[in-house]
């Protein structure tokens, strides 16, 4: 008995491992090919280019003047001037740009995690469709066998012709349902393949079964706010705004200019002149406005973080409820399927002996069909909810 249990455990583990490997491969493909994710990464790379723009000295100024002959003793003058912002200004601006670039990278990570969830949400309906097609095909085969038996009993005068007609009606329904399911595959495949940015007709490997694993209470709750990219991005934006505030204050301080002038004199004695300039920031309104802007952005990002925390917390509770709900439904439908199957076997045995209550046999068969489909749907909803929980808690995939 222990050996059998061990084998069952290995089979379940193997299914879970294959499922994880398959999805992880699709995650990698989506991360590499999805244009939306590539766009987010390009935004991060573009943000990095902002750093040298704001942390570099302004271009030096070169000037040249030529005097009209006989107006002055000098004939031409050259000058080169370099302006230096107040100490620490460039460093503060560079820090702000670097922090915003890092925040952009965190936004990229969040977009990638969201893409993983979207891939899961598009993958599992394909499993549901495949499972429903199998169930419907099995239903058709069973109904065909029922029709053969009902027709045989009618010919032997044991059962009425209406039993055959009832099966025919149900067979038409089943065939139509199967045809509709077949047509549903294309849009689902298109949705999934386009998330991976590949051809719509590309084959998708679908797992043969899903494993609704047992999860402990408050599963992954400890990582809900620990390392979430959205929260990290807002923290970095707050720090970037603080650096912008520092830079705004320093921009309101004097700027020093150092240069060199060279004059060509008619006498032949050319002159070299050191030059120094100081900008006087008299008009303070723009500097105060820049400081206030940075302060307001800090408050805005802090409020946004509070909103994200509230949203993550409420989403976690609702998603955790959905996971528990679907797990209970899976267990319920499994029990209902087993009991309905047992009842169906008893009813069919009775019909085989008496030729009566065939309508009840068909009703029980449809009940079994319903429970099997509902179980498949609950398994899919469970996996989608789990994928959403992984996104909310920023689970990383390897």
Summarize the structure in words.
The model is unreliable at 1-18 (pLDDT under 50). Strand 3 and strand 4 form a beta hairpin. The radius of gyration is 37 Å and the shape is elongated. The chain is built from 8 helices and 4 strands, in the order αααββαααββαα. It has helices at residues 2-33, 35-48, 50-54, 89-155, 161-195, 229-251, 285-354, 358-392; strands at residues 61-66, 74-84, 255-265, 271-279. It is of the alpha+beta class and 398 residues long. Helix 7 runs antiparallel to helix 8 (358-392). The protein is 71% helix and 9% strand.
Q: Globular, elongated, flat, extended or rod-shaped: what is the shape?
A: elongated
In N-to-C order, the SSE pattern is HHHEEHHHEEHH
Compute the gyration radius: what is it? 37 Å
> What fraction of residues sit in β-strands?
5-15%
How many strands appear in the DSSP assignment? 4
The separation of the N and C termini measures 36 Å
Helix/strand structural class? alpha+beta
Report the uncertain regions: 1-18
Mean pLDDT, all residues: 90
Largest sheet: 4 strands, antiparallel
Helix content percent band: over 70%
Strand order of the largest sheet: 1-2-3-4
* Helix count, DSSP H or I runs of 4 or more residues: 8
Summarize the helices and strands and which ones pair or pack.
Layout: H1 2-33, H2 35-48, H3 50-54, E1 61-66, E2 74-84, H4 89-155, H5 161-195, H6 229-251, E3 255-265, E4 271-279, H7 285-354, H8 358-392
Question: Which terms would index this structure?
Answer:
alpha+beta, four-stranded antiparallel beta sheet, 398 residues, elongated, single chain
């Amino acid at each position: 008995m222990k050996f059998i249990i061990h084998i069952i455990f290995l089979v379940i583990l193997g299914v879970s491992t294959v499922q994880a490997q398959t999805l992880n491969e699709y995650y990698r493909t989506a991360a590499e090919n999805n244009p939306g994710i590539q766009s987010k990464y390009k935004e991060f790379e573009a943000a990095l280019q902002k750093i040298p723009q704001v942390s570099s000295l302004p271009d030096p100024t070169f000037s040249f003047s030529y005097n009209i002959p006989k107006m002055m003793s000098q004939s031409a003058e050259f000058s080169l001037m370099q302006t230096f912002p107040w100490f620490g200004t460039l460093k503060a601006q560079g820090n702000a740009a670097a922090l915003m670039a890092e925040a952009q990278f965190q936004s990229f990570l969040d977009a990638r995690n969201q893409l993983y969830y979207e891939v899961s949400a598009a993958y599992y309906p394909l499993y549901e469709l495949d499972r429903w097609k199998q169930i419907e095909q099995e239903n058709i085969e069973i109904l065909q066998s029922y029709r053969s038996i009902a027709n045989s009993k009618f010919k032997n005068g044991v059962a009425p012709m209406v039993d055959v007609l009832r099966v025919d009606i149900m067979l038409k329904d089943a065939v139509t349902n199967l045809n509709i399911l077949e047509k549903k595959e294309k849009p689902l495949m298109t949705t999934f393949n386009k998330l991976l940015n590949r051809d719509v007709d590309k084959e998708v490997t679908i797992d043969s079964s899903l494993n609704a694993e047992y999860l402990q209470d408050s599963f992954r709750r400890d990582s809900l706010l620990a390392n979430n990219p959205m929260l990290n991005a807002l923290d970095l934006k707050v720090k970037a705004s603080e650096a912008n505030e520092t830079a705004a204050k320093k921009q309101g301080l004097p700027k020093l200019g150092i240069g060199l002038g060279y004059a060509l004199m008619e006498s032949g004695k050319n002159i070299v002149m050191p030059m120094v300039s100081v900008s006087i920031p008299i008009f303070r309104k723009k500097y105060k406005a820049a400081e206030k802007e940075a302060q307001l952005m800090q408050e805005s990002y802090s409020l946004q973080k509070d909103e994200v925390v509230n949203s993550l917390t409420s989403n976690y509770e609702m998603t955790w409820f959905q996971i528990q709900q679907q797990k209970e439904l899976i267990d319920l439908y499994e029990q209902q399927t087993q009991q309905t199957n047992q009842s169906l076997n008893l009813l069919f045995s009775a019909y085989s002996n008496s030729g009566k209550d065939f309508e009840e046999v068909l009703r029980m068969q449809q009940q079994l069909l319903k429970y099997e489909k509902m179980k498949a749907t609950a398994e899919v909803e469970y996996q989608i909810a789990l994928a959403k929980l992984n996104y909310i808690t920023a689970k990383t995939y390897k």
